[in-house]
Task: structure prediction
Amino acid sequence: MAKNGKLARFKVQRRLGTELPGLGKAGALERRPYPPGENGNKRRKYSDFALRLEEKQKIRVHYGLREKQLRRFIRDSKRGSAVNWVNKLIGRLELRLDNVVFRLGYATSIRAARQLVGHGHINVDGKRVDLGGYVLAQGAKVSLTEKAKQNQIVLQATKSPRLEMPDFLRKDSEAGVEVGVVQAVPRTEHVPFQFDSGLFTEYYAARKA
Result:
């Protein structure tokens, strides 16, 4: 990880006041638990809009999405019924292949997991998938290729996982191969950081996603 990239990821977490596990290494708020900048350690006054915006930014930054990508996920989540669309959204984001690889403990960040996927190191139901944004279905099985087991990203992650594996996933062994299984559709409670779904909903209430 480049030093400047690491500092940028720490700064965005300090600005949002929340550690976002998807960005990798912990400790962004340990030394300076206030926003970056010369006036960052002074008390900040938040408008209602700023509070709602921060919840949106947490989701976008943690999952590594561009604004257009997030809006597309929101539109898909609202399709058919707008009831509980945030739960549907989180279900889709948590079931992106890059995120599942991360949550299974095969990478220390979503970005690193996306790199594994993009380089062809991940199988889904026995077939190679190289799209990090591929959304898995319940029952899908994710495994590492043989070559991936010696990849430095995987070796580092399995030695020191960033997060505990969530309960919507489990690991099985099939013919001596470790397989991660999607055993349930995740909901807002599975977001791995402090997240106010009400503020997030309010942000988009007056906007067309």
